[in-house]
Amino acid sequence: MKWGNLAGIFYQPAKVFEGMKADVKWQWLLPLAIAIAIGVASFFVIRPVMVPEVMANIAQRQPDMSPEMLEMIRGRVGSPLGAINVVIFVPLVALLIALVYWAAFSFTGAKTTFGHMFAATAWAGMANVLASFVRVPLIMAQQTLKVHTSLALILPPDMEEGFLTRLLGQLDIFTVWMLVLLAIGYATFTGVERRKAYAVVFGLWGVWALLTAALGGMFHFGMH
Questions:
Q1: Is 43 a member of any domain?
Q2: Cβ neighbours of residue 108 closer than 8 Å, sequence gap 6 or more
Q3: Lower Cβ count inside 10 Å, N or C end of the chain?
Q4: Where are the alpha helices (DSSP H) in the chain?
């Protein structure tokens, strides 16, 4: 495991993936550990902003909810145990992404192991780690969770809940960066042409983006 990969993944990803191609054993551990640590730290930093905003949204959508129920929900939303969700969510999402793309590339005839796909996915997730260093300061500065690093910025606030806003919200600079890293990693490990890897990665993500936008933005792509 090379610590230099932490920087290299951002400016020479092909070289980083090529360097771990022969032996990917435990290569996923470092990026996942960093993603979890940053995710937990971010949770505690934004909690003072998150709790009141989430509770205000609940109160607005459920005006008949009793004060007791609201207080119980507030306790759960603001509980430090919420950090456990990050510990579970980050590796679980990485596993699911790797599994879906492993199946997709296998369907195209590419030959690789799940271990290679999982390692590529974990390292591509470093783009989301970088995103935290941008989004968390924005959240604290603006005192709202509604910060955007996506094309949703070009739309007016009154379109906040619309399908188009949710779809453009998926076109986030860090998500696109992660997808590029995924394609480079998968191309390196499967031996397919990079153009084909881009088509598979962005094609499946496009389907995901449309579905989640249609379902009301219930899910977001990536480990964040």
A1: yes
A2: 192, 196, 200
A3: N
A4: 5-11, 13-19, 29-61, 67-77, 82-107, 114-124, 126-142, 163-170, 173-190, 194-214
Residue 158 has pLDDT above 90, yes or no: no
Look at residue 6 and tell me if it is in a domain: no
Q: Which amino acid is at 191?
A: G
Question: What pLDDT, on a 0 to 100 scale, did the predictor assign at position 222?
Answer: 55
What pLDDT is recorded for position 221? 56
Q: Is residue 3 part of a domain?
A: no
Residues 6+ apart with CB under 8 A from 184: 13, 14, 17, 194, 197
pLDDT band at 77 (very low <50, low <70, confident <90, very high): confident
In a domain, 221, yes or no: no
| 3-class DSSP assignment, residue 118 | helix
pLDDT over 90 (residue 90)? yes
> Distance of CA 202 to CAs 7, 69, 113, 164, 195, Å?
24, 42, 21, 19, 11
Q: Cα-flanking dihedrals φ and ψ of residue 150, to 5°?
A: -130, 180
Looking at the structure of the chain, the number of domains it has is: 1
Dist CA 19 CA 14 (whole Å): 9
Q: Which domain holds residue 204?
A: 25-214
Q: Is the pLDDT of residue 219 over 70?
A: no
- Pick from 121, 65, 57: nearest CA to 92: 121
Residue position matching structure tokens 């940053």: 38
